[in-house]
């Protein structure tokens, strides 16, 4: 019995290899001073327009906490690296040093702290989100999205509504920023997710960020009036000295430029001239140069163009100097869960491999059916969410009629549903055929029924097709034209 108790004690000791994050602070005067200083600097990070603080404040604290490896000192080391990275990225967006500090902070969290604790999840989410933004500026799409999804995962684990909203908003910005066909709908869905966690009254800055991303989705689809309304709302919510306000001004100016209202564009850009972010300043200068050129003021246009030229030359140098930023982030992701070397004989791995293969063969049918069912549920869910985004009374009536026809005579209702749709929207189907000529008749029919809110099984009954064929048509639609072509035409 004593032996069992001793073994249980050793087991619990092994399981506690991740130190607790919530350790008491000592009464050491230097420790108290550094702790308060780090708390103050971290509080300033919630006001992103304060970027004059340098890491010179944090360096002595890091040196102090590196003296030993107690849980408290390791936690404070992690915080020091996090703050140094955040301040570094605020001053230099393309910063190899910032990535190095973020990765060091992540490694300290991995090695010494329990990832199930809310406070640890909080830092994980924050760091992954910041890293995704830095990698995004190097146009590495896959790595940027991977980091952003990790940030969302940890925010969800912490159940922090603000961090969840920021993570969804960050993902929306990344999808919208890369601008691939069909990803505008994904960005829009993530914006709706973010907006469901925060409101304009209690979280104005977060809500302003969501407004800007949704407005950019409208801007890219040439819905300029809706974009301008959202940019104006974002400006009313954001502090006039914050980067959020300046970014809203810049994007709003882009809309005015497309509408050939150059005077309004210049007024917006001049509001953003005071920004401390060098990338935003470059966008402002570029926009002003273009606007003055359109208005015939070549002297002003040349002045701003020369600024852009010198900035881009410096940016090229920055990119070359920081060429290791993305590889460092990728190396960390690749090594997050390294395989353990156990020294077993090669033949044992062969036997285990054969056993796993046999087990996989026995389970393949079940897993395949489950996967197909999940794909169908996900496809139906996306259709319903996109369909709910369009609020129009005549559409609601049409949907009700279509559902009633299906309920009354499911196998013969298709022609009547098609007639009702033609009556409500006579120009949509000809427009669909003209805009997307490479769609087959079956794909157009599936697009129409999906738009009306029918699920895969119902579409198969109405069109006298198999469910697999309907799934194939939906997949073809996504590859050819994006998420929902009829929704896009009506929007």
Short description:
The chain is mainly α and 491 residues long.
Explained architecture:
Among the domains are: 240-309, Serine Threonine Protein Phosphatase 5, Tetratricopeptide repeat, CATH 1.25.40; 394-491, no CATH class. It is built from 24 helices and no strands. The chain has helices at residues 2-15, 29-44, 58-65, 71-91, 96-112, 118-137, 141-158, 161-178, 183-197, 204-220, 224-237, 243-258, 262-271, 278-294, 298-321, 325-334, 346-388, 393-408, 414-424, 428-435, 441-451, 456-463, 467-481, 485-490. The model is unreliable at 1-20, 316-320 and 338-345 (pLDDT under 50).
Judging from the principal axes of the Cα atoms, what is the shape?
globular
SS strand fraction: under 5%
Number of helical stretches of at least 4 residues:
24
Helix content: over 70%
Unreliable stretches, pLDDT < 50, 5 or more residues? 1-20, 316-320, 338-345
Elements, N to C (H/E): HHHHHHHHHHHHHHHHHHHHHHHH
